[in-house]
Write a structure and sequence with these properties.
The chain has 191 residues and is of the alpha/beta class. It has 9 helices and 6 strands, in the order βαβαβαβααβαβααα. It has a 3-stranded parallel sheet with strand order 1-2-3, sandwiched between helices. Strands 4-5-6 form a 3-stranded parallel sheet, sandwiched between helices. Strand 2, helix 2 and strand 3 form a beta-alpha-beta unit. Helix 1 crosses helix 7.
Length: 191
Amino acid sequence: PIFNFYERNVTLKKHIIGFIGEARVNKGFNKIPDLIKIINNSNTDIKFIIQFSGTDNSTVKTANKLYELSKHFKNIKIIKKYCDYQEYRKILQDITIMPLMYDTDHMNNTNSGIVYSCISNEIIPIIPKDCEYLKSILADNSFREADNIESFAKNINIIQNDYENILKNAKISSKNFSKIIDNGSMIKNIS
């Protein structure tokens, strides 16, 4: 199957913020340490999973910062490897909130698979402001919008405090997406 759907339980003990995929500047990788510092200074009830398979010259310093942060904060788990399909699915099932700190232009001009992974796994995404395409495929109030690190952090707290209601809408996005997949109309967009 192209997408496996995961039905998320409404009750949970601790939120897990996830970053998954390539370590690239235009995907917001270099913003992760600053977001972690803000969240860890104000919220002790959060965990982080950061998965990436490699770095380049523009992201290697950030990867090193993340390793240093993970030595000081036990709530940070770094997975630096390519994940097979089963590992990827498991990581997605653990994540409850996904800040997509992509450049807005990049997000508006490409079709990121991670968005569809969020939808099919009922993960609450925080998307860059002014991403009209994303807003068109996500159910109302199933996501949050942010335009800087502080607003990403603020929206993480908002999701934590209203998780049950936002998750209900994420479930609607997931069901709608499932219908699109079942009808086969998505397949032509992926190929």
